[in-house]
Amino acid sequence: MTIRVGVNGYGVIGKRVADAVKLQTDMELIGVGDVADDWRIGVARAQGVPIYLASGDGSAGSLEDMARAADLVIDCTPKGVAAKNTALYRQLGVKFIVQGGEKHGVAGHSFVADVSYASALDRHSTRVVSCNTTSIVRVFGALRRAGLLRRARGTLLRRALDPWESHLGGIMNTLVPEAHVPSHQGPDARTVDPALDVVTMAVKVPETLGHMHFWSADLNGAPTREQVRDVLSASPRIAFVREGDGLGAINAVKERMLDLGRPRGDLYEVAILEEALTVENGELFCTYMVDNQAIVIPETIDAIRALMGGEPDAAASMAKTNRALAIAAA
Amino acid sequence: MTIRVGVNGYGVIGKRVADAVKLQTDMELIGVGDVADDWRIGVARAQGVPIYLASGDGSAGSLEDMARAADLVIDCTPKGVAAKNTALYRQLGVKFIVQGGEKHGVAGHSFVADVSYASALDRHSTRVVSCNTTSIVRVFGALRRAGLLRRARGTLLRRALDPWESHLGGIMNTLVPEAHVPSHQGPDARTVDPALDVVTMAVKVPETLGHMHFWSADLNGAPTREQVRDVLSASPRIAFVREGDGLGAINAVKERMLDLGRPRGDLYEVAILEEALTVENGELFCTYMVDNQAIVIPETIDAIRALMGGEPDAAASMAKTNRALAIAAA
Amino acid sequence: MTIRVGVNGYGVIGKRVADAVKLQTDMELIGVGDVADDWRIGVARAQGVPIYLASGDGSAGSLEDMARAADLVIDCTPKGVAAKNTALYRQLGVKFIVQGGEKHGVAGHSFVADVSYASALDRHSTRVVSCNTTSIVRVFGALRRAGLLRRARGTLLRRALDPWESHLGGIMNTLVPEAHVPSHQGPDARTVDPALDVVTMAVKVPETLGHMHFWSADLNGAPTREQVRDVLSASPRIAFVREGDGLGAINAVKERMLDLGRPRGDLYEVAILEEALTVENGELFCTYMVDNQAIVIPETIDAIRALMGGEPDAAASMAKTNRALAIAAA
Amino acid sequence: MTIRVGVNGYGVIGKRVADAVKLQTDMELIGVGDVADDWRIGVARAQGVPIYLASGDGSAGSLEDMARAADLVIDCTPKGVAAKNTALYRQLGVKFIVQGGEKHGVAGHSFVADVSYASALDRHSTRVVSCNTTSIVRVFGALRRAGLLRRARGTLLRRALDPWESHLGGIMNTLVPEAHVPSHQGPDARTVDPALDVVTMAVKVPETLGHMHFWSADLNGAPTREQVRDVLSASPRIAFVREGDGLGAINAVKERMLDLGRPRGDLYEVAILEEALTVENGELFCTYMVDNQAIVIPETIDAIRALMGGEPDAAASMAKTNRALAIAAA
Question: Would you call D76 a catalytic residue per the annotation?
């Protein structure tokens, strides 16, 4: 029995989630919804996807119609809007997933597949945490669960805007640090893994390709670089890229994703720079790229399966998702 | 009988040509060749494409081996390298196509499908002209052949580098005009259409997405905007984009290509900004985007067919190419 | 007798006008006014400039107090605000100058020193036209008055934001053309020189240093390049820069202004690229840089003198202004 | 008796050093030297500065002539060139200062005024360390000497090129991390202050205004934020900027320097973001801007005095330098 999924909010995340749902053998995209009927919705319509519009004028009806028709709605609307929409989902008894712009309390549960699949099983709702938080939980959660991590301190370089919107409020020839320390990602990571001792500072940089993190961490014991690397490379959603292969800069990494035929050049993995991964005297230094448009897509797919309860095993769900998205190929 | 095509030079253009050849029902990609065996070649190898290397260590042999095995080689190596390679092609009696970095004399024939398909039939070689020149011939060649164009004067904004190489010599927060007027595109366009009266100035701008042209032109007679637009829209390789649809900036146009599922987000068409197309008192003003990575790909495919002579009709070849590349869908 | 000048609006233009007024021997800066008391006003205060604030809490009083104390107010407030302020100036009988963001009708007179000094003598008010329009009148007005210009068609590359504000709404890795042709500068130039036949297209580019124009023009007769250059070089507010000297890119030109000790690195002149100036078969091609923060400063100083009527000769005023701003030195 | 100073290498640093020397009452700029006679040298010549050229054709002779005429030469030539030049200086018995591009061994002594003034007294030569290293020694050296610092871990965002050269090899819409950890600044800081426990990672970012550092540090004891801030604000070469004043982004900070009338908008101080300075549980988090073109200028002036030995007191020299450069005013 396939899971009937509706996607509300057809923007940067929504359109990727919709395309990823279509690639799953155990899911069906019953349609996408939005408040605006612009060129993005036009592409979905041309592809034959049923359209639901806030106005009710969608080919398939209103957003409420979509919620009624679905087993589960992925709400990818802007921050705060999704929080309001949940009242409808709850009233209709339809399960839902919100994205990382919303607070933990909106769903009462926060999701990164590695950690919280089991606790999400059969729940009514969950929140897939933000791109930066997802990367932190993947990398430092793995080290912590392996008993290696004492604490991590990071600097987050945030792309100022997504590529499509870079004419709508970018920054030029400057850097814009967040004046508040810590930035929200550390506390946010603890909604998924409460034992993580992580503090971050953040700064907006004038590029559109994705985020980049730089970390120093104190480790337990005195593990070798190889031990640390083994823990990280055990995760299929962490990839290593080599400057020696010409992949040291983030634009080259993105080009490789396009060459691989990934939809929209999406990089679903955390991409760690191999040569920079350094372990010395109980300290770890590392840097990685986060494709803010893509990294939460596989997590969202796993979250669907967890909420619907049909697949009780996290690893099995992740393997299914990875296969459908060709994540092994990277 | 399929045409056996080899691609020499697996960079920005070469990899796109190779992928486009694979999509044609009347062609077979026999392999790709390069001097370097880097991550780009690695992707091709992983896709099962036979690899030919200058060193001779390719899975399938040397560049000479590729030339021997092919009916036709597309040489996409850097400017000047292709010119040298042609000696080998001529010696082996294999047909070849060079790209717009080379001079007209290298092949003795310059190609834009609209204009020079017939004269390329059964030739030994041709040169697909550069991205900017291709766009000029598509747009102003069409107007000239319709008897509408007297002369055109243009300003060409050139992206400073391609996305993958933007860490290898870009420009930041500045503009770099070409000190020589006219820039080479006007004279180059006349290698395809000798009757074109076109003069251009050029300037490098700090972005990586593509070029943008701004034109004023004097027309014959006093055609209406509709007459001019009809001539342009008759070409399937000219598309119109509307600022009113949110597609006024070139980053938004590229996002749409990614959403359409175009490989690498490629825009094969000249994309004219609808609202800016102005015809008044015998003058035309217009602006369009040129995706320098993509626009020559369909031309190259047509050039293959022309040289091999199996399809005598330009329109039929262009339709076949467009269908394979989903150009109608844009 | 010195002219008592107040400056309302202490932003990009206002602070430069205030500093320029201080350098004139026949003018006195009686103070600067603003609605906000931020770090910019703080710098003026630290320099001992009397401060007038909308709130009335300035060290020297309110904006109305400043208008009462001045012979003339330069209103450099944002577009539309100045238009409203003029009611007060008229009521108090104080002369005023508005900037190019306002419409011609706000003052009923538009000013570029070369052309409209005489008609501004003893007027109550004028409008110093925008940076782009000023450059057009300087360059093409000079050619027209010399009988050489038939018509000019230009492409205007506009810096997307000023340096200080580039974190408040910039554009990144894209180009944003104006969808309407002609852009407003051509018609605006005719408010100063009604005989100018000028049409422009405009595009925002991702840099902050200034604008750049690219022109083709039809000339009367068949003047030589030298004749055209002589007309242009006769103006002290037009400078020539050479790529051969390393000054081909606009960032290098700005560096030179800083090296010259110009306040804030200001380039008051239109900077024409020497090598690109081309005259052939009755056509002119040229490109120049417009420092949008600086070019109207000398014009504003001249406009003050014209309105106050003490210096009846345009050339004498311009020479005085140029000397004070070291314009000859460039 | 004034110190006769020659400056060899009239680029980004050299021209600033030359201008700063001119502002000191106890120094005389005897001339500037370079290998190339370009527009930069032209500005110096127009200002009446004696010019020495490698060719010997300078108005004042050759580089060797300059070295003979000087008490001390500041060598600001590119990395590696200065190292070669020192043979001449030693042979002629003229004192010299090299910049941070050179290795410690070139002069056998490394200089940051706060720390190494006394040990530089009457020496034959010293090396003013790089901009980033200077900032590290100012900030973390101060904390260490106050007994507060245990160790510091930093991420350095490096402007990809200086403003004047940003058309000669920039990076666009990408981030380029250094693949090697630690980057060289930590070890380099220990050439000045061997007790500093500092490790850094570095990344090139697509802007030209300056560097930005982000730090986490472990402190001794559990000092309050106020105690830490007091130590830092005791240095006149550390300034605090407030986001609340509109100075959170580095472009705004630079605009303020231009408004203050600083030559070329130079920021000589390390500019710490006030609101982000955080002290909690024995940890410090902070971020600051480093104007790579300017920060070493006051250090170089102090180094001149130290080598010449006339002013034995570091604090007195620094006060003199600061006064001449209006550093107190920021």
Answer: no
